[in-house]
Design goal:
This protein is α/β, with parallel strands linked by helices and about 240 residues long. It has a single domain, classed as Glutaconate Coenzyme A-transferase (3-Layer(aba) Sandwich), CATH 3.40.1080.10. It has 4 helices and 10 strands. It has a 7-stranded mixed β-sheet with strand order 1-2-5-7-8-9-10. β7 and β8 form a beta hairpin. It is globular. InterPro entries: CoA_trans_fam_I, NagB/RpiA_transferase-like.
Length: about 240
């Protein structure tokens, strides 16, 4: 039993007792994966998300432990269900430990100094020296208004936590004091478009990568896309 307690972890809490159920209960998922049965209206949005993910792949390193946001990956499809790696919300188990080296977020808004408006369902963000936080987001809302702002309009859920912003149009490096620095432009995107759809000022890196195709190595791309669709679990023994 003592060994079992060591495997149970939570945010800021310790476990002294585990109660085992006398009856077996099989969890059932009724939520469909967002990658299934999408309408034509949403297909363009999914392609944008895949473009962002392919760029995010370039930040991965071998043996790196990555913490994914709520919904990344999405709900599992029942045909590929593994109840061993699901938590109470019927989502994939994530690793809350301090050993993680990279955190991927899907925030609603990000400010020029790295503040995040993440909504009510946002993950618990803890700044650590060895943990980089990258925001993966579409550059604008559906109405064309910017999601990268001078200051967040929505309630801030974490202050100065983002180190990099990756959108379908470009990549920003976030300086907590000086603001945003544009370091990459996606293919078929120009500077004028970035200025029009970004809600704050930014500086341009002197070594700006222009017309970059946001695609990493084929093997890593397949790995992260599979991860976002099905399961990504980091287990520490």
């Amino acid at each position: 039993m003592a060994g079992l307690l060591n495997l149970v972890r939570g945010f800021g809490c310790s476990n002294t007792r585990v109660c085992l159920s006398k009856s077996s209960v099989v969890a059932q998922l009724h939520t469909k994966s967002k990658f299934e049965n999408v309408t034509d209206r949403k297909r363009s949005s999914i392609s944008v998300q895949e473009l962002i993910v392919k760029r995010a792949v370039l930040e991965f390193r071998h043996h790196m432990i990555v913490n994914l946001d709520v919904g990344l990956p999405p709900f599992r499809v029942p045909n590929h269900l593994n109840l061993t790696f699901l938590q109470l919300g019927n989502e994939v188990v994530q690793n809350p430990d301090h050993h993680q080296q990279l955190t991927l977020l899907a925030p609603l808004q990000v400010s020029q100094h790295g503040d995040v408006a993440h909504g009510e369902a946002g993950m618990v963000l803890q700044r650590r020296a060895n943990n980089r936080v990258i925001a993966l987001m579409e550059h604008t809302r559906e109405d064309g208004s910017p999601k990268i702002l001078k200051s967040c309009d929505l309630q801030i859920t974490a202050v100065s936590c983002v180190d990099m912003i990756i959108t379908e149009k470009c990549v920003f490096r976030v300086d907590k004091e000086n603001g945003l620095e544009l370091i990459e432009l996606a293919k078929q995107t120009d500077m004028l478009e970035i200025m029009e759809c970004t809600g704050c000022e930014f500086v341009v890196n002197e070594n700006l990568l222009v017309n970059r195709n946001f695609v990493g190595e084929k093997l890593l791309c397949l790995l992260i896309l599979h991860c976002l669709q099905w399961i990504f679990v980091a287990v520490l023994l």
